[in-house]
Task: structure prediction
Amino acid sequence: MTTIEGAAPAPTDSATSGTPAPGPSTGLRKRFFGSGEKPGFLTYGLLLAFLLSSAYPLWWSAVIGSRSNEALGETWPPLLPGGNFWTNVGEVFDTIPFWLALGNSVLISCIITVSVVGFSTLAGYAFAKLRFKGRNGLMLMVVATMAIPTQLGIIPLFMVMRTLGWTGEIGAVVVPTLVTAFGVFFMRQYLVDVIPDELIESARMDGASMISTFWHVAIPAARPAMAILGLFTFMTAWTDFLWPLLVLDAGNPTLQTALSQLQSARYVDYSVVLAGAVLATLPLLVLFVLAGKQLISGIMQGAVKG
Amino acid sequence: MTTTLNRTAEPAAVKPKPTWKQRLSVFDVKASPYLYIAPFFILFALVGLFPLVYTFVVSLFDWHLLKGQGDFVGLQNFAEVLQDRFFWNSLFNTVSIFLLSAIPQLAVALFLAAMLDQNLRARTFWRMSVLLPYVVTPVAVAMIFTNMFGEQYGLINNVLGNFGLDPVMWKSDTLPSHIAIATMVNWRWTGYNALILLAAMQAVPRDLYESAALDGAGAVRRFFSITLPSIRPTMVFVVITSTIGGLQIFTEPRLFDPATAGGSQRQFQTTVLYLWEMAFQRQNFGKASTIAWLLFLIIVLFGVINYLISRRIATADAAKPSRAARRRAERTTR
Result:
């Protein structure tokens, strides 16, 4: 886990500090294409182009969302936001129960995150550090279930929720994802290297029960992985659309299902739709600014471990 | 360490009556692991395995959303769905959108990862810039791009018009609608996959590149003969995850034209969208379950094919050159 982060910065530092400025001998060609050590303008140019294409659709939504429907008809798209954003936002609030949806989304995502992280850490710890009969076989089952598209069981699941009378309730969204195979796998992979067996054994020697060993030894060691798993679980729960669409109704939606109602209205004002899209993106943009580094290292670790 | 642990257990076995506390402790050691993993297995059985199996049961019946279970019809639903023009249409659309998204995405992600795998200034900034679209939810992505691809006033047709080009019928024509939906998927996921590939690239030992450079291999040659073979397992991982996700695509085609379930002529109706229409608009749970099971089998089939192809490639050529190159690198470092 730490090897990726540790290995990369070393050459960067030596390369940037070792050659402060391109000397007179370095030709234009080298500055453009880059030499073996340092990337040239071409690399930065391409990355910048990619950044623009990533950011432009968002910027465009903000521009149109702060103007009126007529802005869409202009042959060249306007480049700067107008002054209509709050009017459009007001329209969004009138069309959909925005705050209720936001509250539901926060509640659902938080419950799922706490539950997935807790249960996954518990199971991951057992698989990584405890000895019991059938451990390997059961772990293999966990891995196998990761590849099964369980989402295709939505019809019986829907029938169960309806029989229980949970449709329309938040519980129907929360319960099916309280623990995931990926979470268990992820925590096992992390904990297997991170906790020395001696630490667990000495805690047991001191007379600690199994659960207090877990609490005092495993949890502190698992914290970084728990944070990353939590971040991704939250993202997944927040973006889920199909299942909440099926079990919740328009009166008690999540943010995603509420947003989709904007698009489905009979008369669609596109500047309002886009204002809604921007508004709904803001919470995750804040999360991105605060925890972007963790997201990146999480994705990169998952790749190497998975 | 292990012997001391055993010593505490031994007296319990020798003595005919262990104290209550000792018994409790043994029970704690034996039972705890199962208690810790129980939540996962119980929940998986309830919300994963049971629904999947029960889907098959439902598919054998006439089953209405509101009226509930009807007559047992055996495999008739399967026979009907397999002869259903719309089912095959949805499968064609799904695979078409999947290919239009998976292939360009993998190519661009590889390229991006190679760009990022250099001694960049402001490394974290560039990595974050690549990940920006990932924080926009699929629903918001669908809303934004649906408007961009609007046929009358959409941004893209407006710009095309400025260059004297005819507007493209992004929603009513089949291929353009597939391209539009694939664009949504690509926009959100390319950077994410680039970071996964980047992680794999950084794990390639640097001395491999150095020795290849000494042998006179250029950057392009090094990329194709060192980088690509070394990151193949990760590429397979990316392909398999995007296959599982891509074959279940729903949000984007659902919102591309909210008034219909995948276009007026079903020109971009994917299989999950057809499943949704069958279950909740036509209210035929029996047939919808049949579609779910067929899709399940297709996804498993794709997974197996992926696995076989990747193993074939791995044994055929990836192992040999990289191992030879590694040996060469070892020699130079010695």
